[in-house]
Design goal:
Helix content: 55-70%
Number of helices: 6
Order of helices and strands: HHHHHH
Strand content: under 5%
Radius of gyration: 18 Å
Number of strands: 0
Structural class: mainly alpha
C-alpha cells in the first residue's frame, strides 16, 4: 500500500498545487477586479493592492507550476505579513482574529517551497524542478498494473 501511495505522491501534490494556486488567484482577482461579489481595491493602496497582485500573479504561477518554489515563497511571506499585521493584533489565535485563510495559505505555500511542484508543472516540463535535465523521473511514473 505504501508503495502505491508513494508512487501517486507527485500526482496528488501536483493536483494540490493547482487547486491551491487557483484559489489564491481567485482571491487576487476578487480584490483587484471586484469579482465574486467583492469590491475592487484602488491601485497602489498599501498594502492591500500589492497583496492582491501577489495573490493574482503568485497564485497563477503556482497553479501553472512555473517558478513554483519562488512564487510560493513570496506568497507565503505575503500571507505571513497579512496575518501578523492585519489579523494577529485582533487576537492570538486565527479563530479569534479571522486569520484562518492567511495562516493556512502561509503554511501551504511554505510546504510547496520545500516539496516542489509535483507532477503536471511547467517547471518539470522545462527541467527547472530541481532534477537534472534528462534525469530519469521513475518515481513520478504511474505504477504498472499487474494482474
Amino acid at each position: 500500500m505504501h508503495t502505491r501511495l508513494n508512487q501517486a505522491q507527485p500526482y496528488v501534490l501536483g493536483l494540490f498545487r493547482i487547486i491551491v494556486g487557483l484559489l489564491f488567484t481567485c482571491h487576487g482577482a476578487a480584490a483587484l477586479f471586484g469579482l465574486f461579489g467583492d469590491s475592487s481595491i484602488a491601485a497602489g493602496t498599501w498594502p492591500k493592492w500589492y497583496a492582491a497582485v501577489i495573490e493574482l500573479v503568485g497564485g497563477a504561477l503556482v497553479a501553472l507550476g512555473l517558478g513554483t518554489r519562488f512564487a510560493a515563497l513570496i506568497s507565503s511571506g505575503s500571507m505571513a505579513y497579512a496575518y501578523f499585521t492585519v489579523h494577529q493584533p485582533n487576537g492570538l489565535f486565527p479563530m479569534q482574529n479571522g486569520g484562518e485563510a492567511a495562516a493556512t495559505f502561509c503554511w501551504i505555500f511554505l510546504l510547496l517551497v520545500f516539496s516542489g511542484p509535483g507532477a503536471f508543472s511547467l517547471d518539470r516540463l522545462i527541467g527547472r524542478d530541481g532534477t537534472e535535465p534528462g534525469e530519469d523521473r521513475a518515481r513520478d511514473r504511474a505504477p504498472a498494473v499487474t494482474a
